[in-house]
Design goal:
about 375 residues; TIM Barrel; three-stranded antiparallel β-sheet; Arc Repressor Mutant, subunit A; alpha/beta; about 20% strand
Length: about 375
C-alpha cells in the first residue's frame, strides 16, 4: 500500500455522564455525575491526548467535537481548561470548529457565555421534540419551554452556529406533529438541523419494553412532510440525518464521512488514525468512566487499544462513510485516504453499480443514486 497524502484529522472528546439515561439511548453514557469528577476527568483527557501524540505528529487538528453523555454538565471553567490544554499539546487550524453537545435540561445563560468565551464555536442542542408529551415518553429531563429557552441562550451568548437535534417517528406521532416540531425548530435555527428517526436499539430500556411506534404509512408521511418543510425553508439534506443551509454543514462530521482521521479521547472514545507508513488504525478506550480514570492514575497513560484495518476492508469502510453524503465523494478521495487505487473501490462496488444503487463513476464521483440513497443499509451491505 502506498503512502497516503496528508489526511485531515479531527478530535473527538467524550464526556460520558448524563443526568438520567434515556430509554432509547445506546450511547456510552452513565448516571452518577458529581462536580468533583470534573477536574480529574479533564486531567485524564489531556493525558489521553498525550498518549496519542505520536499518532497526531505535527498535523493540525481541523475540528473538535465534545460529545457525550451530556457535556453541558461540565462548567465553563472545566471546558476552558480542556480546550486550553488541547491548544498546548496540538497544532490547531485557523478557523477551528469546536462543537459542544448540550442538553436543554442543563442549559444556563451564564454557562453558555462561558462556553463561548472558552473557544467553543458551535453548540449541538439535544431538543429531540418540542412536544411535552413526547418528551416525557422519551424520558427527557427538559420540556418544550426549556428547549426554546436553551436555543435563546445560545443566541444571546454570542453563538452564530448551532445544531438542533430532532427525532421523528416517535410514539403516537403524526405527520402533522412531526412537521410542527420542524417548524418550531426552524424558528430558532442557526442553519443546521439533525433530523432522524427513532430506532429501537439493543441494550436499551425501549428494546426490553418497546413503545408503540407509528406504522410504515405514517413514517413515510412523516418523511415526505418533513423533507418538504425543510426544503421550503432552504435546507438541503447533505447527509442521511443532517440538513443545513448552504455553508452551515458540520465540518467535523463531514470529515468522518469523507474518511478523514480522528483521534478519540475519553471513556469509550473511538478513533481512526493513518500512520506515516500508510497503516490505518482503529482505536478505542475502555467504556467505564471509573476504569478510564484509573488509567490516568498511572505515571503515563498508555495509548488506546488499536487494531489495523486490513487493506481488503478499506473499500467497504470507505463506502460505509462516503455514501452517507448526498453528494458522495470524489474517487480521488478514496486513494488519498487509503493509499489504494480507485480500481479497488470500483471492484468492490460492482454489485451496487449493476443494481443501480451507485452511480456510474465515469465522472469521477462515488455517489449513491436516489434509489440507493433510499435503501442505503442494503447498499452498504453489498460491500461487506
Amino acid at each position: 500500500m502506498t503512502l497516503p497524502l496528508d489526511v485531515p484529522v479531527s478530535l473527538y472528546v467524550h464526556l460520558p455522564w448524563c443526568e438520567r439515561k434515556c430509554p432509547y439511548c445506546d450511547f456510552n453514557s452513565h448516571e452518577g455525575f458529581t462536580e468533583e469528577l470534573q477536574a480529574p476527568y479533564i486531567k485524564a483527557l489531556l493525558a489521553d491526548l498525550d498518549s496519542q501524540a505520536d499518532w497526531l505528529g505535527r498535523r493540525e487538528i481541523h475540528s473538535i467535537f465534545i460529545g457525550g453523555g451530556t457535556p453541558s454538565l461540565f462548567s465553563g471553567e472545566s471546558i476552558d481548561s480542556l480546550l486550553s490544554g488541547i491548544a498546548q499539546r496540538a497544532r490547531l487550524s485557523v478557523g477551528l470548529e469546536v462543537t459542544l453537545e448540550t442538553n436543554p435540561g442543563s442549559a444556563e445563560a451564564a454557562r453558555y457565555r462561558d462556553y463561548f468565551q472558552s473557544g467553543v464555536t458551535r453548540l449541538s442542542v439535544g431538543v429531540q421534540s418540542f412536544d411535552d408529551d413526547l418528551l416525557a415518553q422519551l424520558g427527557r429531563v427538559h420540556n418544550s419551554a426549556e428547549a426554546k429557552q436553551a436555543l435563546d441562550f445560545a443566541d444571546s451568548a454570542g453563538f452564530t452556529r448551532w445544531n438542533i437535534d430532532l427525532m421523528h417517528g416517535l410514539p403516537g406521532q403524526t405527520a402533522e406533529g412531526a412537521a410542527a416540531d420542524l417548524e418550531a425548530a426552524l424558528l430558532r435555527s442557526a442553519g443546521h438541523i439533525s433530523w432522524y428517526q427513532l430506532t429501537l436499539e439493543r441494550n436499551t430500556a425501549f428494546w426490553s419494553n418497546p413503545p408503540t411506534l407509528p406504522d410504515e404509512d405514517t413514517l413515510e408521511a412523516i418523511q415526505i412532510a418533513g423533507e418538504a418543510t425543510l426544503y421550503a425553508a432552504g435546507f438541503q439534506q447533505y447527509e442521511v440525518s443532517a440538513h443545513s443551509l448552504p455553508g452551515e454543514e458540520s465540518r467535523h462530521n463531514v470529515n468522518y464521512w469523507e474518511f478523514g482521521d480522528y483521534l478519540g479521547i475519553g471513556a469509550g472514545a473511538h478513533g481512526k488514525v493513518t500512520r506515516p507508513d500508510g497503516t490505518i488504525l482503529r482505536s478505542r478506550r475502555t467504556r467505564t468512566p471509573a476504569d478510564y480514570l484509573a488509567l490516568s492514575a498511572k505515571s503515563e497513560m498508555p495509548a488506546p487499544t488499536s487494531t489495523p484495518i486490513p487493506p481488503a476492508s478499506l473499500p467497504g469502510e470507505f463506502a460505509m462513510n462516503a455514501l452517507r453524503l448526498r453528494r458522495g465523494a470524489p474517487l480521488s478521495t478514496f486513494s488519498e485516504r487509503t493509499g489504494l487505487s480507485a480500481d479497488r473501490l470500483m471492484e468492490a462496488a460492482a454489485v451496487a453499480i449493476s443494481q443501480g444503487w451507485v452511480a456510474d463513476p465515469t465522472n469521477g464521483t462515488f455517489v449513491a443514486t436516489p434509489m440507493g440513497y433510499r435503501f442505503l443499509d442494503s447498499v452498504i451491505a453489498s460491500f461487506l
